[in-house]
Design the sequence.
C-alpha cells in the first residue's frame, strides 16, 4: 500500500512541494513581530511591568544599599547601573517565553501553524519583537540612571552604543533559554516563576551589586565564571572605561555557547511538541 | 464523486494512548461532514491531522488531492481552521487580528484591511472591530475566530466544536453563518458532541468512539438506528399517574415506564403527541411536563455501542474539550 510509503517518517518529496521563500519568511516574521508590539500598545500593564520594575530596582538599590555598600550613593550608582542593565535584559528575555507559552496554551499557535507561512516565522517574530522591547528597557534604565546622576566615562556615546549592541547580541542568544522555558512550562505564570527561581540567584551571585572580594572563595569562583558578571564587567568597561577586550570576548563566547546549546534544543522540543 | 477531504486508516498514538485507531473519512466537495463523538473520541485529532498540525503515525490523508504530510504547504493554502478554543489573539482588536492573518497570507496592507472590514461586517462585528478581543462575548469571539479562518477564502473549512460553550442564541447564529458558507460552496468538516448540531448542518455523519469509526450515515439514518423519540408526561397530581399511564400506553402501544411521577414511552409516530394531549384534556388531567425528545447522542451511542456517551470517555486526549453536556447523564443504563 502506498499509504505506508507516504507516512513512514519524513516523506520523500517525490514532486517538489512549494516552500516559503526566505524573504517571504522574513516578511511574515516582521508581521508577527508587529503583532507582539501592538499587544504591548494595547496592554499598558505589560509595558509598566517591564518599565516600572527596573526603575524601582535602580531607585531601591541606589538609595537603600548604595551608601552602605560603596560609601556614597553616587559611587554605588556608577558601579551598579551597568550590571542592573544586564540583569534587566535577562528578565526581559522571559517575555519571549511567556508570549510563546500563551500562544501555545490558548490555541493561537495552531492558527498560525495552519496558515501557509514559514514554520520558523512565529518564533523568529517573537524574538525580533523582543529585541525592540530589549532596546527600550536598556534605554529606560540608562535614562533613569542619568536622571539620578550617572554619567558615561571616557568611552562616551560610542562605548554606550557598543554596550547596547553587546547586550542585544547576548539577549538574542539568551532568548533561546526563554523559548525552551516557554515551551516546557505548563502556563505563563510558571515562566515567571522560573525567572524568580533561576534568574535571581544567577544575577545576585555575580559582581552586579557588590564586588566579589568579600564572598567566600567557592562563591567567588562561581562569580568569576558567571556570564552575568562577565557581561556586567564588559558593560562597565564600555560605559565607564577600563578593561574591555577580554570581558567583551568572553561575553560573546558565552552568548555563542548558550545559543549553540539552547537553540537546537529549543527547536527540537518545539518540533516534538507540535 | 470528487473528494475535498479524504483520509484512510489514520492512526495516531500519544505515548501509550491510541487516539486514532484506523479512521477513514471522506467528504465530497461542497458538502458538510459531521464528525460526531464524545470527548476524547479522537475528533480533534482527526481535524489536527487534516489541518497539517499533526503527522499521523499511519494512514494517509489528503485535501483536494494534496497529501497533508508531503504537500502540507499546499494543503494550508486550501484550509481554514476554527478551533474548539477561540484561537484569536485576545490582546489585539478584531480588525487587527484579521489584518494580521491577511498580511501573513501575503495580502497588501490595504487589501488585508478591506478584507478584514468586509468580514467584520458580514459577521456582525463591525461595531466591535476596534475593541480588544478580550472584551468580546463568547459568541462574538467565536464569530471572529470563524472570520479569521476565512480571510484567505479557503475552499475547505474545519470547524472543531464551533458551538461548545455557547448560549442557544449564539449557537443558532453560528449555524446560520455556517449555512451561508456552505451555500457559497465551501466544504465543511464539523466536529461536535451534539447530534442536533450534526443534524442541523451535516449531509453525512461519521460517529467515532475510542479512535474508531463506529457508524456512518445521514442524520436520518443514524437517528433511525437509535430508535424514534421519547414521550414524557408528568401529571400535576400524582393521583392521576395511573390514568396518564393508561392513556400513554394505549396510544404508544407499549407499556410506559414510570419513574417517580414521570411517565415515559418510546414512540415512532409523531401523531401520538397531539393525540395524547387531546386524551389528557378529555380526562381533565393537568400536566406540569409534556415533552417529545428526539434521540439524543446518548441514545445513538447507546444503540451503537451498548453504553452511554458519558462512559465512553477515552484516556484524556489533549484538546478534546470540556465536559459533554448533552442528553441526561443521570440516565440509568447498565454497563
Sequence:
Amino acid at each position: 500500500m502506498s499509504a505506508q510509503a507516504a507516512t513512514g517518517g519524513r516523506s520523500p518529496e517525490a514532486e517538489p512541494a512549494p516552500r516559503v521563500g526566505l524573504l517571504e519568511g522574513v516578511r511574515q516574521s516582521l508581521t508577527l513581530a508587529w503583532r507582539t508590539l501592538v499587544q504591548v500598545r494595547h496592554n499598558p500593564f505589560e509595558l509598566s511591568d517591564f518599565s516600572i520594575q527596573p526603575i524601582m530596582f535602580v531607585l531601591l538599590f541606589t538609595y537603600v544599599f548604595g551608601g552602605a555598600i560603596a560609601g556614597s550613593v553616587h559611587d554605588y550608582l556608577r558601579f551598579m547601573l551597568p550590571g542592573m542593565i544586564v540583569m534587566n535584559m535577562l528578565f526581559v528575555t522571559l517575555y519571549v517565553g511567556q508570549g510563546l507559552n500563551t500562544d501555545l496554551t490558548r490555541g493561537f499557535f495552531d492558527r498560525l501553524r495552519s496558515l501557509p507561512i514559514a514554520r520558523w516565522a512565529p518564533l523568529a517574530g517573537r524574538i525580533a519583537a523582543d529585541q525592540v522591547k530589549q532596546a527600550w528597557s536598556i534605554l529606560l534604565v540608562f535614562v533613569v540612571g542619568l536622571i539620578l546622576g550617572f554619567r558615561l566615562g571616557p568611552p562616551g556615546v560610542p562605548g554606550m552604543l557598543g554596550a547596547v549592541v553587546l547586550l542585544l547580541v547576548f539577549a538574542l542568544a539568551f532568548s533561546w533559554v526563554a523559548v525552551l522555558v516557554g515551551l516546557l512550562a505548563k502556563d505563563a505564570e510558571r515562566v515567571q516563576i522560573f525567572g524568580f527561581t533561576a534568574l535571581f540567584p544567577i544575577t545576585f551571585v555575580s559582581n552586579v551589586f557588590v564586588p566579589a572580594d568579600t564572598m567566600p572563595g567557592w562563591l567567588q569562583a562561581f562569580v568569576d565564571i558567571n556570564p552575568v558578571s562577565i557581561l556586567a564587567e564588559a558593560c562597565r568597561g564600555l560605559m565607564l572605561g577600563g578593561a574591555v577586550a577580554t570581558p567583551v570576548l568572553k561575553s560573546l563566547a558565552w552568548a555563542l555557547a548558550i545559543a549553540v546549546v539552547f537553540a537546537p534544543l529549543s527547536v527540537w522540543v518545539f518540533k516534538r511538541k507540535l | 464523486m470528487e473528494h475535498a477531504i479524504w483520509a484512510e486508516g489514520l492512526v495516531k498514538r500519544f505515548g501509550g494512548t491510541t487516539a486514532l485507531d484506523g479512521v477513514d473519512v471522506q467528504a465530497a466537495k461542497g458538502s458538510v461532514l459531521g464528525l460526531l463523538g464524545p470527548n476524547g473520541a479522537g475528533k480533534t485529532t482527526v481535524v489536527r491531522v487534516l489541518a497539517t498540525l499533526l503527522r499521523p503515525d499511519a494512514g494517509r490523508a489528503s485535501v483536494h488531492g494534496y497529501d497533508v504530510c508531503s504537500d502540507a504547504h499546499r494543503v494550508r493554502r486550501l484550509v481554514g481552521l476554527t478551533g474548539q478554543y477561540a484561537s484569536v489573539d485576545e490582546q489585539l482588536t478584531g480588525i487587527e487580528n484579521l489584518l494580521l492573518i491577511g498580511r501573513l497570507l501575503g495580502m497588501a496592507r490595504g487589501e488585508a484591511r478591506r478584507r478584514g472590514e468586509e468580514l467584520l461586517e458580514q459577521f456582525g462585528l463591525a461595531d466591535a472591530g476596534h475593541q480588544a478581543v478580550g472584551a468580546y462575548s463568547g459568541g462574538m469571539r467565536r464569530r471572529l475566530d470563524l472570520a479569521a479562518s476565512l480571510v484567505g477564502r479557503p475552499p475547505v473549512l474545519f470547524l472543531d466544536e464551533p458551538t461548545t460553550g455557547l448560549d442557544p442564541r449564539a449557537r443558532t447564529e453560528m449555524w446560520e453563518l455556517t449555512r451561508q458558507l456552505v451555500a457559497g460552496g465551501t466544504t465543511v468538516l464539523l466536529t461536535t458532541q451534539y447530534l442536533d448540531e450534526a443534524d442541523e448542518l451535516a449531509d453525512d455523519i461519521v460517529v467515532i468512539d475510542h479512535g474508531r469509526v463506529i457508524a456512518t450515515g445521514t442524520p436520518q439514518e443514524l437517528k433511525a438506528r437509535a430508535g424514534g423519540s421519547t414521550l414524557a408526561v408528568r401529571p400535576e397530581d400524582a393521583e392521576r399517574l395511573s390514568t396518564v399511564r393508561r392513556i400513554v400506553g394505549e396510544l404508544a402501544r407499549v407499556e410506559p415506564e414510570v419513574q417517580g411521577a414521570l411517565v415515559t414511552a418510546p414512540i415512532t409516530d409523531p401523531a401520538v403527541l397531539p393525540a395524547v394531549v387531546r386524551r389528557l384534556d378529555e380526562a381533565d388531567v393537568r400536566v406540569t411536563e409534556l415533552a417529545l425528545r428526539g434521540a439524543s447522542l446518548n441514545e445513538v451511542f447507546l444503540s451503537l455501542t451498548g453504553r452511554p456517551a458519558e462512559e465512553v470517555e477515552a484516556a484524556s486526549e489533549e484538546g478534546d474539550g470540556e465536559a459533554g453536556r448533552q442528553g441526561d447523564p443521570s440516565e440509568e443504563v447498565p454497563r
